Amino acid sequence: MTVLAILQALLGLLLFFGFVALAVVSFGLPELFPHLKIMIPMPMFSIALVLLAFAIVEFVLAFGLWHGTGWAWIAALCVAILGIVFAILSLFLRPGIGEIISLIVNLLIVYYLMQPRTHAFFRKSSAAPKRLPSESR
User: Fold this and answer.
1) Percent helix, strand, coil in the chain (nearest 5)?
2) What is the helix (H) or strand (E) element at residue 29, kind and residue range?
3) Tens digits of residue pLDDT in 9-44
């Protein structure tokens, strides 16, 4: 499960770096080069905020996967599938190394989440031992 948490955190870092890059372009360039009269549209900073929100979600998922919570398995699978769809769409719109890395990492996450040992760890299959509420850890 360590691999899943690390992959999820890697996606969070990629999204965070995207946020930083867009925020610097949105606010830094006009301040650094005022004589060029660079006009950066406000929607670019809005996109940066969305990237920050997704990065936070990825870090929360990494935390949940690290601790083996059931909600993290479901959420990570949904987010990874959405990440695959968006990475493929991004590859058609503007191909780049970030989109390729995102696609590969999301595919790896889905692969690991669907393994029988992962199901057992998150208690998602009949192979996992069922605990009674009276049993303590």
Assistant:
1) 80, 0, 20
2) helix 29-32
3) 888 888 888 888 877 777 666 666 556 555 555 677
Q: Are 36 and 131 in contact (CB under 8 A)?
A: no
Residue 134 located in a structural domain: no
Which of 62-65's residues contact partners 24+ apart within 8 Å by CB, and which partners? Answer: 62/5, 62/6, 62/8, 62/9, 62/12, 63/5, 65/1, 65/4, 65/5, 65/8
Stated pTM of the model: 0.67
Site of tokens 């760890």: 121
CA distances from 59 to 37, 65, 67, 96, 114 (A): 37, 10, 13, 23, 21
* Residue type (1 letter), 43: P
Domain count across the chain? 1
Does residue 136 lie in a domain region? no
Domain that holds residue 91: 2-121
**Residue 30 covered by a domain:** yes
* Domain-embedded: residue 87: yes
pLDDT confidence of 126, banded at 50, 70, 90?
very low
